[in-house]
Amino acid sequence: MIDRLWICVLLGLVSHAVTTAANGQPPAADGTGKKATESNKQDRPAVLKTVVAQLEAEAREIEVWKTESKVAPVFSRPHEKVRELKPEDIGAILRRMRQPLTGQEYRDSYIRWHLMHVVRGASGEQLAKAVPILVDLVNEMPEPLVGAHREEHRYVPKKNYQMWHRLYHTARATKGYPPFQQVIYGPAALPLMSPAERPQAEANLKLAAKIKFKHVVDKKVQAYNTRIRWLNSIVRQYRGDLIYCLVRSGDSQVLSLVAKAIEKNVRKKRHIAFDLVAYVYQATFHGAMAQYDESTRLAFADHLKRVARQHQRYVDYGGTKRNFADYAFHLIELLQQPEKL
């Protein structure tokens, strides 16, 4: 009788386990998989809320250098707190990114840049559904911070430094040959100078050695400038992440929008054009172009080719000499060879 009772109990447990597995629900402590699953789903918005709150707190400190602050901004990814987010949260993350955050566009870019680390891992299907949000976020991108740099170094008195600088740099010599030339200043240049030039340079160096001034380094300004450089880098990466995700979406309208954005920035001589091409490259290497039909892909390549042909010279793009045609050449060639995509 007892043996039969134990057999019935065991059969009941096995039956319960099989039923639970068939429903796709692991056994829960309360005996129902359903409640455990619902509890997990309810926790995800709370996790996202906590992550965003942490990023908002850090963003408010973004222009202040506090090495020991618990809310000091983090300029690397993935952020430890963002690791708590999962692929299943991507839809909610994108919706939250579209909503108001701190109200200051650069602080908001810091937050969205961190969240984009998760979004970059979205599937093409998820990104296709998110195209309107991604386009809106691109359109709301802030411009790079221009003119925010502050002087880190001061020389007191300034006129003494200027006099020293002028005298010291009269001792000047060029070593090597193009394109490996090296310009040398000061005492090290004397042996390389001609006999006719050397006496005057030696006299000038002696005078320069007698001039007194102080070199003052402002640590706070250095910290501020470091933050500005990081912030500009974040804005560039965030914009690139959005373009990367848009291209990976496979949406038939995206490539045309991206081509127009690239052309617009090339014509305005903005380095953003090169950033956009770089992230299109990245998406291409990750197989994104295979989602597009041949006519769409070739139309994109033709658009880039037209822009490249019109901009084949080295010109100044945001302070750097660049040649758009050279930069875009390999991408255009790749797009025209479907067997390599």
Fraction in beta strands: 5-15%
Distance between the termini: 71 Å
The count of DSSP E runs of length 2 or more, i.e. the number of strands, is 6
- What is the helix/strand order? HHHHHHEHEEHEHHHHEEH
The amount of helix comes to: 55-70%
The biggest sheet, with number of strands, parallel, antiparallel or mixed sense and barrel status, is:
2 strands, antiparallel
How many distinct helices?
13
Average pLDDT? 86
Q: Work out the radius of gyration.
A: 30 Å
| Main sheet: strand order | 1-4
The unreliable regions are 1-39
Structural class: mainly alpha
**Bulk shape:** flat
Would you write up a description of this structure?
The chain is mainly alpha-helical and 341 residues long. The chain has 13 helices and six strands. The protein has helices spanning 2-22, 33-59, 90-98, 105-119, 124-129, 131-139, 158-168, 198-210, 219-249, 254-267, 272-285, 294-310, 324-335, and strands at residues 153-156, 172-175, 182-185, 214-217, 315-317, 320-322. Strand 2 (172-175) and strand 3 (182-185) form a beta hairpin. Helix 7 (158-168) packs antiparallel against helix 8 and helix 10 (254-267) packs parallel to helix 12 (294-310). Residues 1-39 have low confidence and may be disordered.
